[in-house]
């Protein structure tokens, strides 16, 4: 349940369950995951440590609600998307940035995994659910 994986395996849940995909779409999901992982590797090199440390401080602040942390994460992603040159569509870049930030935060402070993961899933559900479904549909065609 709720595993964060970047190797193309389908894990985690969107909006109280699945993204609405049949089990036969595993190959489509693997293709998308491989593409996102490649983009993520490029972005990973561009994200400065101070950005990650700032997010870590927000996640460690128990006085902040998950909603406040989600808003801060969204703000950081928007700022990074402006700073990192990319010729890809903005939604895809923001989605990848959110996943890369999650990985970097958890690698920095592993005990934050659950809170960071829950926040990232919440952020992705709110911001990118339709985009993810559209991306899967486009690859299937």
From TrEMBL:
Which BP terms in the Gene Ontology apply to this protein? apoptotic mitochondrial changes; positive regulation of extrinsic apoptotic signaling pathway; positive regulation of intrinsic apoptotic signaling pathway; positive regulation of release of cytochrome c from mitochondria
Broad class of the protein's primary localization? cytoplasm
Q: Name one GO cellular component term.
A: mitochondrial outer membrane
For this protein, the record's InterPro entries field holds: Bcl-2-like_sf, BID
Alphabetized, the UniProt keywords read: Apoptosis, Cytoplasm, Membrane, Mitochondrion, Mitochondrion outer membrane
For this protein, the record's Gene3D superfamilies field holds:
Blc2-like
Keyword hit for Acetylation: no
Answer whether the UniProt record assigns the keyword Mitochondrion to this protein: yes
Its localization reads: Cytoplasm; Mitochondrion outer membrane
Q: Which domain of life is it from?
A: Eukaryota
Q: What is this protein called?
A: BH3-interacting domain death agonist
């Amino acid at each position: 349940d709720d595993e964060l994986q970047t190797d193309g395996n389908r894990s985690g849940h969107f909006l109280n369950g699945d993204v609405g995909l049949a089990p036969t779409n595993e190959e489509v999901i693997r293709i998308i995951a491989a593409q996102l992982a490649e983009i993520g590797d490029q972005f990973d090199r561009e994200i400065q440590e101070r950005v990650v440390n700032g997010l870590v401080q927000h996640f460690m602040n128990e006085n902040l609600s998950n909603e406040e942390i989600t808003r801060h994460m969204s703000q950081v992603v928007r700022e990074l998307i402006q700073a990192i040159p990319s010729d890809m569509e903005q939604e895809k870049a923001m989605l990848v940035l959110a996943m890369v930030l999650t990985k970097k935060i958890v690698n920095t402070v592993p005990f934050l995994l659950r809170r960071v993961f829950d926040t990232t899933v919440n952020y992705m559900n709110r911001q990118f659910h339709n985009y993810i479904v559209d991306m899967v549909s486009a690859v299937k065609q």
